[in-house]
Specification:
By secondary structure, the chain is an alpha+beta fold. It is built from four helices and six strands; from the N terminus they run H-E-E-E-E-H-E-E-H-H. It has a six-stranded antiparallel β-sheet with strand order 1-2-3-4-6-5. Strand 3 and strand 4 form a beta hairpin.
Length: about 120
């Protein structure tokens, strides 16, 4: 995997945990049990990172980078996958992680966000 910062970057965010989803053979990053991202494999065998992305941003990213595709095995409107052997700049990957984190975190109740120290 080219992006060796992923675990540290995800786990540095408040409330994020990591687990292994046996059925998917993938590592997931979660806030309060809700998935922020997963690292697994595309059907072609390449390793991918899948993240939630605002639909309008998704279209822009997919048009700019050939290594960003529709979310593999996820809702194509809201999720994108990044080939981890590709050429997406580290800054773009981090921005996508931040965006996915924010989308999932803001979906929690205000009470739960406060309990987790997110607000």
């Amino acid at each position: 995997m080219k992006y060796d910062f992923l675990d540290d970057y995800f786990l540095s965010k408040k409330g994020v945990t990591k687990d292994f989803q046996q059925e998917w053979n993938a590592f997931r990053f979660l806030i309060d049990g809700k998935m922020v991202a997963y690292i697994g494999h595309h059907k072609d065998g390449r390793e991918i990172l899948t993240l939630k992305v605002e639909p309008f941003k998704s279209d822009i990213l997919k048009s700019e980078y050939k290594d960003i595709i529709e979310g593999y095995y996820m809702n194509k409107m809201w999720w994108c996958s990044i080939y981890l052997d590709g050429k997406v700049p580290e800054e773009v990957v981090k921005e996508m992680i931040d965006g996915s984190y924010e989308l999932i975190a803001k979906g929690l109740t205000k009470k739960r966000q406060k309990e987790l120290g997110l607000i």
